[in-house]
From TrEMBL:
EC number(s) given by UniProt: 3.2.1.23
GO biological process annotation, one example: galactose metabolic process
Active-site residues, record numbering mapped to chain: 150 (proton donor), 308 (nucleophile)
Keywords: Glycosidase, Hydrolase, Metal-binding, Zinc
Record's protein name: Beta-galactosidase
Length: 674
C-alpha cells in the first residue's frame, strides 16, 4: 500500500478545533477555503477527550469535526491520539509512566510520557485505536491514519529491563554469544544469567551522560531495542486498525535525522513515509534537503508527506526568529522538489494556552485573514491548486547514493575515541552538501540498499561495516563506479568490536590503503592539506595513511606526517572503478573539491553547478514527464542561461535552450523539460 491518491498536493495541517468553541469553527473553515486548505490532521492529542475514563468513550466532538470536514469537502488524516497519556491512565496504572536515564520514575505530565513496554499502555492504546477504526473506517472524510505522533524517548524501568532481556535472548540465543558480542571479559562483566543484565543508564554503564558508556555493545543494543519497542507499539495499533479498515493508508510522522530511532527498521511497516521539518535556524538549505532525501529513501524512493512545518515561527527554542517573506514558499517547494507529495503545517489555528501558544500558525489568535503569514499561505495554496497532480508520484532519477546508517551514528558517537568532536550528521552533511551544490540528485539510502543503479556511492564516516556491505561496495567499483569513504570508517563490526585487521578493515582492499596511526586534536588545531592548487583546512582527526595500491591526491602540510597522504584514490584495474579515501575532516571547500572531481569523472555535474545559491532537483512523473526544480536561496535574483527548452509550470512561461532564465529572490521554477 502507498500514500493516499489525491487530485492535487494535499495542503493543510494540524487542526485542533476541540480547543475552541464551535462558533470559531465557522471562521476556520471560511479561512481554510480562502487559503486553499483541503487536508486536516485531527485528533493528535485527543485521548483524554475521546476516552475521559477507563470504560467511557465519547466521540461526540470528533464526530462533529469529521462531519464538518466532509461537509466542507475536506479530507482528514486521523490520528489515534495515543502519543500522550490521559491523566486517569497514569493514576490508575503508574507503571505506564517512564523511568528516565537517571533512574527516576516520572509522575504524570508532558507528552511522549509512556513506557513502550507497559502492557497497560499497549492494551489501552490499541483499544482506542480499534474503536476509532471501527467508527471512522468508512467516513467520507478519512484520507489516512496517523498513528501516535513523533515517536521518541527511552524508558529504563523494570518492565523495559525485562523486555530487553527477552529481546536479547531472541537476538543472541545464548549467553556465550552475548558475552562474546559485548566483549564482557573486559572489567569482569561476563554474564552467567540473563537476569543479571541491566539497562545501560546513569546508574549502570554510563557515567557522563548517554554518550559515555563503558560497554558500547550493550548501549548499542539498547538503542536497537528501544527502536523495536516503540515500533512494536506502532505495529500493535496498525494491526487493530487493519482489522476494521483494510484500505486506508497508515503512517506515523518521523523527525528527519532523529538520532534515537533507526527509521530504516520502521520503513517496511509504513504505508508511506511522513515527517516534520523544523531545521536548525542557521542551517544551510542542504540540511533540510538531506532530511527530505533521507525520508524519500525510506521507501525505496517513493514520495513522502511533509506532515508538519511552521508557517512562521517555532516555539521550542530559546529564540524563535520569524520566517522572512518568501521563505515559507521556498521551503515548501524545496520539499516538493525532493519528493514531498503533501505540504502540511503545524498548526492551522494557534493554541490559546500552554507551551505552543506562540508557535507559528496559519490563523492567529485574532482569527485575521489580512496577516502576511495568511496571505503567503493562501498564495501558496493557489499555486499548488494550479499545479494539480503533475508532481504526484514522481520519483528522483539519482545516479549518486549517500549511505546513512543509524548503527554507525550510534557507534561513532558513543565511542571513547579517537574523538568525541566528530559528529555523524555534520560529516555526512558535508559530503551531501558538496554533491547537491554540484547540481547532483542524491538518494540517501540504508547500507542494505541495492547499489547496482548508482555510479557514485558516498559513504562518509561509515564507522560500522555489517554483513556483505564491503563486497557490495567493491561491486560498485568493479563495474566502473566510484566509492568514497573517510576517516573513522571500517572500524567495527555490528557488535561494535574492532576488526582484527588493518584499518579500514573490510574496506581496505577497495580503498588500497592501510591506516597506521591516527592523531585527534582539539577543534582549534588546524592542519593544512594540499589538494592540487587548493590549500584547504583539516581538523579533529588526522589519520596517517600508508598507500597499498592507492595514489595520493592530497597531502598533509604540517606536523611529523607532513607530506603523507590525506586523500587517496585507488584505481581498480580494467573496470575503471575507483575507491577514494579521505583521512581527515576537510573543510567544505576541500570536500567540494574531492566530490566534484568524482562527479565530473562520471559526467554528473549539474548544468547550474556554478551557481552556488541555486538548488536543483529532478523528479520524473509516472507518465515520464521530467520536472526540473530550480530554487534560488539568495535574496537577489539568479540570472541563468537555460540549458534546455522547457515550460515553467508555475508561470506558464516557455524558456528556450541558451536563452535567459531569471529566478526571483527566493524564487522557484518548476520546468517541464521538453
Amino acid at each position: 500500500m502507498s500514500a493516499p491518491r489525491t487530485p492535487r498536493i494535499p495542503y493543510g495541517g494540524d487542526y485542533n478545533p476541540e480547543q475552541w468553541p464551535e462558533q470559531v469553527w465557522d471562521d476556520d473553515h471560511r479561512l481554510f477555503t480562502r487559503a486553499g486548505i483541503d487536508t486536516l490532521t485531527v485528533g493528535v492529542f485527543s485521548w483524554s477527550l475521546t476516552q475521559p475514563a477507563p470504560d467511557t468513550y465519547d466521540f461526540t466532538v470528533l464526530d462533529r469535526i469529521l462531519d464538518r470536514a466532509a461537509a466542507e469537502n475536506r479530507r482528514v488524516c486521523l490520528a489515534t491520539g495515543t502519543a500522550a497519556l490521559p491523566p486517569w491512565l497514569a493514576r490508575r496504572h503508574p507503571e505506564v509512566n517512564r523511568t528516565d536515564f537517571e533512574g527516576r520514575r516520572h509522575r504524570y505530565g508532558q507528552r511522549h510520557n509512556f513506557c513502550p513496554s507497559s502492557p497497560a499502555y499497549r492494551d489501552h492504546a490499541t483499544a482506542l485505536a480499534a474503536r476509532l477504526a471501527e467508527r471512522y473506517a468508512a467516513h467520507p472524510a478519512l484520507l489516512a491514519w496517523h498513528v501516535n505522533n513523533e515517536y521518541g524517548g527511552a524508558c529504563y524501568c523494570d518492565l523495559c529491563a525485562g523486555a530487553f532481556r527477552e529481546w536479547l535472548k531472541d537476538r543472541y540465543g545464548t549467553l556465550d554469544a552475548l558475552n562474546d558480542a559485548w566483549w564482557t571479559t573486559f572489567w569482569s562483566h561476563r554474564y552467567t544469567d540473563f537476569g543479571e543484565i541491566e539497562p545501560p543508564n546513569a546508574l549502570t554503564e554510563h557515567w557522563r551522560g548517554p554518550d559515555h558508556t563503558a560497554f558500547q555493545g550493550i548501549t548499542l543494543d539498547y538503542l536497537r531495542f528501544t527502536t523495536d519497542a516503540l515500533l512494536g507499539c506502532f505495529l500493535a495499533e496498525k494491526e487493530v486498525i487493519r482489522a476494521h479498515d483494510q484500505d486506508t493508508p497508515v503512517t506515523t510522522n518521523f523527525m528527519g535525522m532523529f538520532r534515537p530511532l533507526d527509521y530504516h527498521r520502521w520503513a517496511p511497516h509504513l504505508d508511506f513515509a511522513s515527517w516534520d521539518s523544523y531545521p536548525p535556524l542557521d542551517a544551510p538549505p542542504t540540511w533540510p534537503a538531506l532530511a527530505h532525501d533521507l525520508m524519500r529513501g525510506l521507501k525505496d524512493g517513493a514520495p513522502f508527506w511533509l506532515m508538519e512545518q511552521t508557517p512562521s515561527t517555532t516555539a521550542c527554542r530559546d529564540v524563535n526568529p520569524l520566517r522572512r517573506p518568501g521563505e515559507l514558499r521556498l521551503a515548501t517547494f524545496q520539499a516538493i522538489a525532493h519528493g514531498a507529495d503533501a505540504a502540511l503545517y503545524f498548526q492551522l489555528r494557534a493554541s490559546r494556552g500552554a507551551c505552543e501558544k506562540y508557535h507559528g500558525a496559519v490563523i492567529g489568535h485574532a482569527g485575521r485573514d489580512d496577516t502576511r503569514v495568511f496571505r503567503e499561505v493562501a498564495g501558496l495554496g493557489r499555486e499548488l491548486e494550479a499545479l494539480g497532480d503533475v508532481t504526484l508520484g514522481a520519483r528522483t532519477p539519482a545516479r549518486t547514493a549517500l549511505l546513512f546508517d543509524w548503527d554507525s551514528w550510534w557507534a561513532l558517537e558513543t565511542s571513547d575515541g579517537p574523538s568525541r568532536l566528530v559528529k555523524y550528521q555534520e560529516m555526512v552533511h558535508a559530503y551531501y552538501r558538496a554533491a547537491r551544490e554540484a547540481g547532483v540528485d542524491v538518494d540517501v539510502v540504508p547500507v542494505t540498499a541495492d547499489l547496482t543503479g548508482y555510479d557514485v556511492v558516498l559513504a562518509p564516516v561509515l564507522h560500522m561495516v555489517k554483513g556483505d556491505l564491503a563486497t557490495r561496495l567493491e561491486a560498485v567499483a568493479a563495474r566502473g563506479g566510484t566509492v568514497l569513504t573517510t576517516f573513522l570508517s571500517g572500524r567495527v563490526d555490528e557488535h561494535d568490536r574492532a576488526f582484527l585487521t588493518d584499518v579500514p578493515g573490510p574496506l581496505a582492499p577497495l580503498m588500497g590503503v592501510r591506516v597506521d596511526e591516527w592523531d585527534a586534536r582539539p577543534a582549534d588545531v588546524v592542519q593544512p592539506v594540499q589538494l592540487g592548487e587548493l590549500t584547504c583546512e583539516a581538523r579533529l582527526v588526522f589519520e596517517i595513511v600508508l598507500p597499498r595500491g592507492a595514489e595520493p591526491v592530497g597531502t598533509y602540510g604540517a606536523d611529523f606526517y607532513a607530506g603523507t597522504p590525506a586523500v587517496t584514490h585507488n584505481r581498480l584495474g580494467a573496470s575503471g572503478g575507483e575507491g577514494w579515501y579521505v583521512a581527515t575532516a576537510l573543510d567544505q571547500p576541500g570536500v567540494d573539491r574531492v566530490v566534484r572531481r568524482i562527479l565530473a569523472r562520471h559526467d554528473l555535474l549539474g548544468p547550474y553547478s556554478d551557481q552556488p545559491t541555486v538548488e536543483t532537483a529532478t523528479r520524473v512523473a509516472p507518465d515520464g514527464t521530467r520536472l526540473l526544480f530550480l530554487l534560488n536561496h539568495a535574496p537577489e535574483p539568479a540570472r541563468l542561461t537555460a540549458h534546455t527548452a522547457a515550460t515553467d509550470l508555475l508561470t506558464g512561461k516557455r524558456v528556450e535552450k541558451g536563452g535567459p532564465l531569471t529566478l526571483d529572490p527566493l524564487g522557484t521554477a518548476i520546468l517541464r523539460v521538453q
